Amino acid sequence: MLQPSDITPDVRAALAGGPVPGFITARHPAEAERRFAVYRNNIAHSLREALARRFPVIRRLVGAGFFGAMAAEFIARHPPRSPVLQEWGGDFPHFLGLFAPVATLPYLGDVARIEWARGQAYHAADARPLPPERLDGSEPLRLHPSLQLLLLNHPAASIWQANQPGRDGRLRATGAETALIWRRPDFEVRVASLAPLEAGFIAALMGGRTLETATLLTDPVPMLTLLLRDGLICGAEDE
């Protein structure tokens, strides 16, 4: 079986439907083609399944059949460049924005950004929470590596929430949203839609402003409570 180190440009071309690489031989050329076709189909199936696991809400929104066809097109245009499959798929949100068959669903790219960010948050580095009694409002805070703030052109956070298991998919929000994404200590990854002032508070902290300065923007209690509750304010790296 081919190993990750074997994924050279000619192998990538063959996986996309091109001729069988010259180093793959058999007694009869047709046999080499048949065997490689099996491998090609297995790889394509594995990548489609990996994409569906990474973007389950996109799959629900467009339907399983359409998602499979769309995934095949994405795989052909953006095959993995690394044997680490976790690193593959970051181009999917941009791909959706340019994929003509979903032009009438302009929010898909934003929803995909949320799903990609959730994967990044899940695999983010660990960091030790700062005990609340050591919180210093005059110094910039070190926030957890999983914390992300996404500025969205559509109500994508609400769409994502409405399409979770057990939800009916009905959307009650409109307009642009800002999504906060973070990983809890139990490794559950959360998504929340923030009000503008809440988003400004978090953005200020992420930008290096002190807590004292950020509190001038809005009431800090709701967001500060969330940050402390879920261990998102961290101590120094050497603590």
TrEMBL record:
The keyword DNA-binding applies. It comes from the Bacteria. InterPro entries: DUF2063. GO terms for molecular function: DNA binding. Residues 28-96 form the Putative DNA-binding domain. It holds the Pfam family DUF2063. Keywords: DNA-binding. This is DNA-binding domain-containing protein.
